[in-house]
């Protein structure tokens, strides 16, 4: 299952899975906009970071890519910030 691991300057890390990379990203986008909580566990509140810099890995990637300023657009935030081989992997799993 495709997954994207997001990390913030605060050393908080979230791994979000979906049926595609775009679906995982859209879940993250909803979290960033305060529309959907990441955890539904009672007493656990997780808020988006104040710093706009976000790091992310795709699946088993061993180095982080950087979103300098979260835009809320899958292509601008994820695809354009990945290497060519990761872009190919994302294209292979695209929502159709």
Q: Can you give a write-up of this model?
A:
There is one protein chain. The protein is of the alpha+beta class. Helix content is 26%, strand content 20%. The chain contains 3 helices and 4 strands, in the order ββαββαα. The chain has helices spanning 21-32, 74-77, 84-92, and strands at 3-8, 13-17, 54-58, 65-67. A 4-stranded antiparallel beta sheet has the order 2-1-3-4. A hairpin with a 6-residue loop joins strand 3 and strand 4 (65-67). The radius of gyration is 13 Å and the shape is globular. The mean pLDDT is 84.
Radius of gyration, whole Å: 13 Å
Q: In what range is the share of β-strand residues?
A: 15-25%
What structural class should be given to the helix and strand makeup? alpha+beta
Helix content: 25-40%
Low confidence ranges: none
Distinct helical segment count: 3
The global form is globular
Instruction: Give the neighbour order of strands across the main sheet.
Output: 2-1-3-4
Largest sheet: 4 strands, antiparallel
The SSE string, one letter per element, is EEHEEHH
Mean pLDDT: 84
Q: What is the first-to-last residue Cα distance?
A: 16 Å
Number of strands: 4
Briefly summarize what is shown:
With 96 residues, the chain is α+β, with helices and mostly antiparallel strands. It is built from 3 helices and 4 strands, in the order ββαββαα.
Question: What's the SSE blueprint?
Answer:
Layout: E1 3-8, E2 13-17, H1 21-32, E3 54-58, E4 65-67, H2 74-77, H3 84-92
Antiparallel strand pairs: 1-2, 1-3, 3-4
């Amino acid at each position: 299952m495709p997954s994207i691991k997001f990390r913030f300057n605060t050393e908080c890390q979230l791994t979000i899975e979906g049926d595609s990379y775009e679906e995982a990203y859209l879940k993250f986008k909803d979290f960033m906009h305060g529309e959907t909580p990441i955890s539904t566990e009672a007493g656990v509140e997780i808020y988006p970071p104040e710093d706009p810099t976000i790091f992310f890995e795709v699946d088993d990637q061993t180095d982080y890519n950087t979103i300098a300023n979260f835009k809320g657009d899958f292509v601008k935030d994820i695809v354009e910030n990945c290497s060519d081989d990761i872009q190919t992997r994302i294209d292979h799993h695209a929502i159709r």
